[in-house]
Amino acid sequence: MDDLSRLEDDITARIDAAADIRALEEVRVSALGKKGLVSERMKTLGRMTPEERKEAGPRLNSLKQRVGEKIGARKAVLETEALARQLEEEAVDVTLPVALPPRGRIHPVTRVFEEVEAIFAAMGFEVREGPDVEDDFHNFTALNFPEGHPAREMHDTFFFEPKDDGSRMLLRTHTSPVQVRTMLKEKPPIRIIAPGRTFRCDSDQTHTPMFHQVEGLVIDKNTNMGHLKGTLEAFLKAFFEVDEVKTRFRPHFFPFTEPSAEMDVGYARDGERIEIGTGGDWMEILGCGMVHPNVLTACGLDPEEYQGFAFGVGVDRLAMLKYGIPDLRDFFAADTRWIEHYGFKPGE
Amino acid sequence: MKFSLSWLKDHLRTDASLAEITDAMVRVGLEVEEVTDPAAALSPVTVGYVRSAEKHPDADKLQVCTVETRDGDQQIVCGAPNAREGIKVAYAPVGAYVPGIDTTLTKAKIRGVESFGMLCSAKELEVGEGHDGILELPETAEVGAPVAGILGADDPVIDFEVTPNRPDTNGVDGVACDLAAAGIGDLVTQAPEPVEGAFAQPVPVEIDDEEACPAFASRLIRGVRNGPSPQWLQARLRAIGLRPINALVDVTNFLSYDRARPLHAYDADKLTGTVRARLGAEGESFEALDGKTYEVDGTMCVIADDARVLGLGGVMGGEYSGCTEETTEVLIESALFDPLRTARTGRKTNITSDARYRFERGVDPASTLPGLELATRLILEACGGEPSEIALAGSVEKAPTVIAFPPSEVARLTGIEVAEDGMDRILTALGFGVERGETWSVTVPTSRPDVTIKADLVEEIARIVGLDQLPTATLPPLEAVPTRKVAPLIARQRAVRTALTGQGYLEAVTWAFTDEEAAKLFGGTDPGLKLSNPISSDLGVMRPTALPNLLLALARNRARGAEDVRLFEIGGAYESDAPDGQRSVAFGVAYGTAPRDWRGGQDTPDVFTAKRDVLLALEAAGAPTANLMTLTGGPDHYHPGRKGSLGLGPKKILARFGEIHPGVLKAMDVPGPVAAFEIFLDAIPSPKSKSRTKPALDASELMPLRRDFAFVLDDDVQAEALLKAIRGADKALIRDVRLFDLYSGEGVPEGQKSLAVEVVLQPKERTLTDKDIEGVSDRILTQAKKATGAVLRA
Fold it and tell me: Looking at the domain assignment, is residue A244 inside a domain?
């Protein structure tokens, strides 16, 4: 074994013995560095005769290359080992819980408003709104409730203190004043819904002094009660997500429609659950009718030229029916447990 | 309005079943609310036969009876004096519910003797008042047969809702008329034969105000013997829950329900001089039949004689002149009273009566004289006596309403096709006079004041034809209307709702009203927004902001153990009673720390939480957040040192935020601290450009550079002033300015603070040289110093 072979063995042994990247680097410097053992040998080539060089040159170069490769190979091993150690150290208990950012909830009433608005938007209805604090004209007179008429007493109206001229403002008892405001401002064809808060001076198990309604109004030249029926049935199917819905129209009385009707919807009871659609029982769900000629006239429309229908539906009730919410009064209690349970995640 | 099936059959000849009748009522618009069948309630009670009755071994007044029953012979202990061998009795077995004593029977041991069931009295079965002993049934009654039929207590009672437009259905005859038109039998209501008077009506009756009382018909009957009314009449009244009083009173009550014709009976001996329908005078009062004394005034129509006010016309009679068992001369009043005045008087006095209910909805003038004739006949039958002629003050004539009716209206409004003969038949059956032609001439019966226009006739026809005949039609697509867009305000409400729920807020809906005292803590309520009839005193005014309601809700949630509460509401803030006095606002409150987490990082809501949440919401709502200014100050319900506003200028405030003033929390007994905000959704400007096109992306290929500066400046200088100055130092190059540290204390002079800022420079055309960067830094330092006096921290 000659000198170069011994040198190679020696270096190889040291490469294999290097326990980490730093030790390996030391070996590399001592072998291939500027003053390293291999480099020093390379420098001796200059002093050799061409014959000697011809023989020693390739040997030295191949030695240098082999040493470089061995160091590279060892480095790869060491790096793999180091990474493995690092990964092991970095391991965590992934079963530790992570806290989710708090998520809010949307109130069921809002949710139902949005659903109703979307369903009617698809049928060409736009949304109109009006103030909660109304005057007698918009809430009653223009809607064909004559002064002193007993129909006014059907509405337990909240009044404000009388003004100097004796008139008194009130809280709207229904969303119907928005019909009046819309007809006074816009020209037919009119196709709107008016969602909002409504108020009656009543408070018990099934009544709250504030509640929610959606009003619908269609005015043009040919709309009749058949369209009313078709529109409401389409709405109920979409809202309750059923293919069939059985309805029953009963003649009723509202001062602002003529003919007037209440609509019942078929339902079946399955324990506590109520299924709207085709069951054998009837449930009253909304009031509706053809807009009374006196209302059209009060709003500046000629009842000989224009006609149409209106309806009003209780939104809290829709929410209770669709989502199985038992008690109306809870809607207004702002109990966080209730909102978290019955409310909706944004986008849900 | 209630009536019994047999009562209906006085007016309607029909073989229809109860269910067919109630179904038809619903179909024609008489909404049946309840049907009660007394036979069902009495169904367990059957006929028994007392085989033997022996004295109880240990009780003098008790009998031990052996009763033959449906269930075999039963031993029953009975305390009634008339319990004896050989009679037929009403037997209620063990397990039966006895309505009169509200008890379900169980097997009992009475003084040591077992008793299986009960022998009942009329009162115990609620079929009469008699409590002298147990019911004795006819000998022919068969053991085991239900007693209901034998007692005549098998008459079902129908209760339905009378809508204000149908005064005619306040009488059973009106219901019968609707049902006959709907094909449920024939109307057999009898028009009364006039009774001939034996003498002139001797009591002078005059009308002073014909507007208040258009007609007053009267008749005196002398020599009456008042007492209990006949059994059939008592049964009618009892069936609908009225208490029989005496024949004279019962007859007037009966006709109120039978013919929707209110009447009044005066004891003529108590009358002095002329009976007069006039307006009341201040200072007058009278004691009404309900035992209460009422003040009357000049808006009310009173019936008075020369001595006193006898009653309120059409509302309630007086105690003094009322008929008693001693009455021998009776004056019957059949009058007309103005509906509006009657309604006002009723509201003012708060008297509810069958008469008021009918007169304020409208009583058929044509019923005035027939009603009086009917009353006369019934009184003569029940009490005997001799009638006078009828005296009529005023007039019962009323020009009938005639409507020009094109029969095509029915299809125009309802889409239902009805043959003209069918329409004619329906209108005629309902009492309308029909003259056909191209346009029909339809005369409205005076019992139907609600029918005034052709749409009313359409309703009459449609409801009798049945609304189940409605076609199902789809609204045609709209041609003239442009694409449906969500109104900007509604779009903003939705966006803000999504943003706030994303921040962990729960959406609440609270009352639009609030407590007046609480409202005062929040700027108070406009005087025009005070309710005169609040549901309760703590909900007496419209809320100037929903914050008090949300704070109270927060306190309730805290009291039941919630540790962190974040609530928001989108709704009205009421500033005035004008149509634009209602603002659309998003209100929020945040309290408490989120549950502890092993990684830490929960923050307790403070003014900056509120500011962040407001900014997020405003950004979601499309507000120009880049141009927003933070302004100091705000309403007094916020902490004076921890409140602010965000807006486009001092007059364009979009939101307020802060921590609720500790004094306010204390006054309302709400735990704190609470961060809160109010976002004025109606103040957010809509984007100027209608275009939905986004500007081209300006993304430089060049790397941005970051430079940090630590400034020292006076404590009272606002951070926003410094940031604004830095941003303005080079608008082209400076992309972002971030404040990352706020420090005061050691190393910073007293009265000063250090603000550390990272400035992000975005080169656009070429890489920045050291000189470029130096230039920007110099400008930043110069601007910062100029605007705020800030110097670089040493």
Answer: yes
